[in-house]
From TrEMBL, chain A:
This is ABC transporter permease. Belongs to the binding-protein-dependent transport system permease family. InterPro entries: ABC_perm_TupB-like (IPR049783), MetI-like (IPR000515), MetI-like_sf (IPR035906). The lineage of its organism: Bacteria, Pseudomonadati, Pseudomonadota, Alphaproteobacteria, Rhodobacterales. Coiled coil: none annotated. The chain crosses the membrane at residues 32-53, 60-85, 91-116, 163-181, 201-225. Keywords: Membrane, Transmembrane, Transmembrane helix, Transport. It comes from Defluviimonas salinarum. PANTHER family: PERMEASE COMPONENT OF TUNGSTATE ABC TRANSPORTER.
UniProtKB/TrEMBL annotation, chain B:
Coiled coil: none annotated. PROSITE patterns: ABC_TRANSPORTER_1, ABC_TRANSPORTER_2. InterPro entries: AAA+_ATPase, ABC_transporter-like_ATP-bd, ABC_transporter-like_CS, MetN_ABC_transporter-like, P-loop_NTPase. Residues 8-232 form the ABC transporter domain. Keywords: ATP-binding, Nucleotide-binding, Transport. This is ATP-binding cassette domain-containing protein. Belongs to the ABC transporter superfamily. One of its GO terms (molecular function) is ATP binding.
């Protein structure tokens, strides 16, 4: 209990005094996670919509695999990305290991199935509503997907936010491929792991509270900006 | 003027769902001008008949033939569903949507949508979300959206079901206007009075089969089948 109180106090102090280290790792956390979420959304949202709208062989298997990949173990992803980006790996020549880019790659792999799967569910329901209308209006396949993505944008934002939530709290994969290097690849989650290892629970908790506040703030900002839950709006 | 995509010919068209016959075999030719009213009891296959003609159903058997190429055929017809399908957009954007698909700019499409909303008598805040509309207003929205492309053939599946007399009268006024502008209308209804007011000719379906066709006057003067007679008289059938 004492640790939690101390953590809260320390978190408040770090925020109020605009601690430079805290600001740096917070910004890096945001930069890595927001970039990963944008890339994963660019892949996952159209992919989910495409699967919802099209009928093809192995469709059910693709959906099952996609759902299964939602539970992809981050440590395994981190390990695979590490092997690929390591000096002896197929992409070692790019020199990306222990950089924020490597962390972004790992996060994209982890959250793309989540975003694709949730968006598939949302678009499937919308497609059931719109199917007859879009067929009747002779919308092309591209127009159908664009319409579903636009009209389902609020549900899709939830999909992206789920991806963001998973990514910002991720530690296993980015610890492996980022290395938790101070002033280079340290982010909030890896800093928490480090401080916990050192036994500085107060600081670890403080960073944890900042992380939670950050996740809530981003969600809140997006909801306010997009006008969800406003009266009579979809 | 008769639409160049007509006549539409149906030859022994049959529709089955999960092995059960829901329509057919039906043979029919849609041609000429005016309003054709499709009548029949619940489950007679009215909706399936309209959906087949519009191309929303894959035929289980038989053949259907419009005139002209596929794109032209699809672009020149429209369908109003019994339960209006509302998009998650404003009223104006819902009406403008078909023109957006056609490649018009949003501004032009919305301008045309404003005119169409006025024609159908949609007196609501056009920038409001479509889901705030009442039943009658939703149906008018669906009608405006169907008419915005100035279709040559318009299918309507019981567009006035569950509407009050005032809304029904307004929709009938719009349909009469569309007919006068040359739109060929095929519409299903349970409302015998509405059929008398609007129809140029009548199709009567029972148990998925087209059992009677003819001009309005001939049909109402003396229906040739007991089913049609009972339907017109409002008799309760076992």
């Amino acid at each position: 209990m004492n640790d939690i109180f101390e953590g809260l106090t320390q978190a408040a102090r770090l925020v109020v005094t605009l601690d430079a280290d805290l600001a740096e790792i917070t910004l890096r956390s945001l930069q890595v996670t927001v970039t990963a979420t944008l890339i994963a959304s660019a892949i996952g949202l159209p992919l989910g919509a495409w699967i919802a709208v099209n009928r093809f062989r192995l469709r059910r298997i693709v959906i099952v695999v996609l759902n299964a990949l939602m539970g992809l173990p981050p440590v395994v992803v981190g390990l695979v990305v590490y092997v690929i980006l390591s000096r002896s790996g197929p992409l070692g020549v790019l020199g990306l290991l222990f950089t924020p880019t490597a962390m972004i790659i790992a996060q994209v792999i982890i959250i793309t199935p989540i975003i694709a799967s949730i968006s598939h569910q949302a678009i499937r329901e919308l497609w059931a509503d719109y199917h007859d209308l879009l067929i009747s209006l002779h919308a092309t396949r591209r127009q159908r997907i664009a319409t579903l993505l636009w009209d389902g944008r609020r549900a899709l934002m939830t999909a992206s936010l789920a991806g963001f939530g998973r990514a910002i709290g991720e530690v296993g994969a980015i610890m492996i491929v980022g290395g938790n290097i101070d002033h280079a690849t340290r982010v909030l989650t890896t800093a928490i792991a480090l401080e916990t290892g050192k036994g500085d629970f107060g600081l670890a908790l403080a960073l944890g509270f900042v992380l939670i506040a950050l996740a809530i703030a981003v969600n809140l900002a997006l909801h306010v900006l997009s006008g969800t839950e406003r009266g009579s709006r979809w | 003027m008769v639409s160049p995509i007509l006549p539409l010919t149906l030859e022994n068209v049959e529709l089955r769902r999960q092995g059960k016959r829901v329509l057919g075999p039906v043979s029919y030719t849609l041609d000429g001008e005016g309003i054709t009213i499709v009548m029949g009891p619940n489950g007679a296959g009215k909706t399936s008949f309209l959906r087949c003609m519009h191309g929303l159903e894959r035929l289980s058997r038989g053949r259907m033939q419009w005139q002209g190429d596929e794109d032209r055929i699809r672009a020149r017809q429209a369908f109003v569903f019994q339960t209006p399908i509302l998009m998650r957009r404003s009223v104006l954007d819902c009406i403008a949507y078909p023109l957006i698909l056609d490649g018009l700019s949003r501004r032009e499409a919305r301008k045309a949508a404003e005119r169409e909303a006025e024609i159908v008598g949609l007196k609501v805040t056009l920038n409001a979300p479509a889901n705030v509309l009442s039943g009658g207003e939703r149906q008018k929205l669906a009608l405006a959206r169907a008419l915005i492309r100035a279709p040559e053939v318009l299918f309507l599946d019981e567009p006035c079901a569950n509407l009050d007399l005032h809304s029904t009268a307004e929709i009938e006024r719009v349909l009469a206007g569309a007919r006068d502008r040359g739109t060929r209308i095929v519409m299903s209804t349970h409302n015998v009075g509405q059929a008398r007011r609007l129809a140029d000719d009548i199709l009567f379906l029972s148990d998925g089969r087209l059992i009677e066709t003819g001009s309005r006057d001939v049909f109402f003067a003396g229906p040739g089948t007991p089913e049609a007679r009972a339907h017109i008289n409002g008799d309760l059938l076992p």
